[in-house]
Design a protein that fits this description.
The complex is a heterodimer of chains A (267) and B (287). Chain A is mainly alpha-helical and 267 residues long. Helices cover 69% and strands 3% of the residues of chain A. A two-stranded antiparallel sheet of chain A has the order 1-2. In chain A, helix 2 runs antiparallel to helix 6, helix 3 (45-59) runs antiparallel to helix 10 (244-266) and helix 4 (63-70) packs across helix 6 (104-130). The radius of gyration of chain A is 24 Å and the shape is flat. The relative contact order of chain A is 0.16. Chain B has helices spanning 46-52, 78-84, 101-111, 116-129, 134-137, 147-159, 177-192, 204-210, 228-232, 235-240, 247-257, 268-280; strands at 3-12, 20-30, 35-40, 61-66, 69-70, 85-88, 165-169, 196-200, 213-218, 221-226. In chain B, helix 3 (101-111) crosses helix 4. Chain B is globular, with a radius of gyration of 21 Å. Chain B starts with a strand and ends in a 7-residue tail after the last helix. Classes of the chains: A mainly alpha (267), B alpha/beta (287). At the A-B interface, helix 8 and helix 9 of A face helix 2, strand 6 and helix 3 of B.
Chain lengths: 267, 287
Amino acid sequence: MLRDITLGQYYPVDSFVHQLDPRTKILLTLGYIIAVFMASNLLAYVPIVLFLVLAIRVSRIPAKMMLRSIRPLRVLLIFTFVLNLFFGAGDEVVFRLGFIVIKYEGLMNALHFSLRLIFLVMGTSLMTLTTPPVVLTDGLEKLASPLRVIKFPAHEMAMMMTIALRFIPTLVEEADKIMKAQTARGADFTSGNIKQRTQAMIPLLVPLFISAFRRAGDLAMAMEARCYHGGEGRTRLHVLKYGVKDALAALVVLGLLAAVFLVGKLL
Amino acid sequence: MPLTLQNVTHIYQPGSPFQSVALSDINLTIDDGELLALIGHTGSGKSTLAQHLNGLMQPTSGAVLLDGEDINSKDTDKRRLRFQVGLVFQYPEYQLFEETVEKDIAFGPKNMGLSAGEVKDRVLAAMDMVGLSYEEIGQKSPFELSGGQMRRVALAGVLAMQPRILVLDEPTAGLDPRARKFLLEDIQRLHREGTTVVMISHSMDDVAQLATRIAVMEKGQLAMTGTPEEIFSQYDRLTGMGLDVPQASVLSHRLRGKGLAIDNCYQLSCLADELEKLLKGGAPHAS
């Protein structure tokens, strides 16, 4: 019943973008976000669109998957667009119908903010679509490790994230199984008012929590048995290494930043 | 009231790149009063099939009929169906959730909308059926019990609905020999008292001991059905599928391989009789 939930949206194909170091992808995504926020007029979005199209083509992610990533944003997009459209300041009226007034600035702002949202989400989705979650946490850990001097627990954070990610599918599967087992005993999860539905969750949640705690205990024991003692002195099987491709990608994003900057300056 | 599967096919995530056929054109009738054992390799589709029997899963094509009526049609009350076809999942003790054993077993009957008195009667009867003492553990937390006892509480939770057909998915998995023996005795008793039982099992010795009929699944298909004699005489075919055969079958097969005139036996008692006959009559060596 819960089978349709897909977690971590990694799309497994092999491409230039997939092969990039996760740290590169995180940093370049940051650069891209800066570029999107730097875009001060609609024309400045041209290089961004070109960059996105290029990146998506190179990553071999189907356009359908990319579009799917903005679907959860629908409501927010409509809100942003409508609010900016009708309540923008300015004096150049483009459309008037009774009390509905659309001004030029409002229209521009509506387009501006909606596009900014769309580009932000598409760019960051490209990162999560091309990087497995565990690799992403590896990259985060490595990037955050200089912060250890100020006692930031980079390794522990990354380990917790990895474990959490690892167990999400397991727990979903478990929840599905328990749900079915209780349904077989006549439990009803889908009808009734809010109070009844909340109560109906108890036969699902109690076993789920118990099993989550049991798994956590087992995992702690298994890690202990393999002498896990935190990040101190721990070496890696897959050592992250920057390559030529990373430099190339960095150049492209720098180019993007320059282009957006120039377009903003010149116009 | 027989339960019939007609051309049942189940495809997981059809149309996606992850599409996989779990069941393919299954035709099977479960007759009243039989104890049907469902055997097959891991991933052969046994559990998927079991979940079709009470409508938890719907076939992609084909139909499941109870008394000739499609259980997945809009007119069928799914909950009522589930009270008639009780399904006990693998490791059912992981679904216990109530504060006391009594409350947990009462969950099913309460969902049926029975009166408090009736619920209590059913709890007592169900506990009795699986050999648990109400006085001793009725008010205990199910989480204080041993693994074997928890399994029986979970089984009682389904039995309390008094289903006419009981579907068990690997009921003895992970139990110690004693708990296993008790549980098998419970199942046999239920069957003798008239409940139709469908049991998924990996233990061929359990199957040989209990089943009146066996259905063998392979890669989502029904490879063969028949009496234990018929199925376990197909020694080579079963082992070819990566399945075990009962110890008695292995032994009788090997002895026949040595040229001894021994009938195909799948139960130890039968093998003992055969050997006794052979010993008394002197060993007629075929070669």
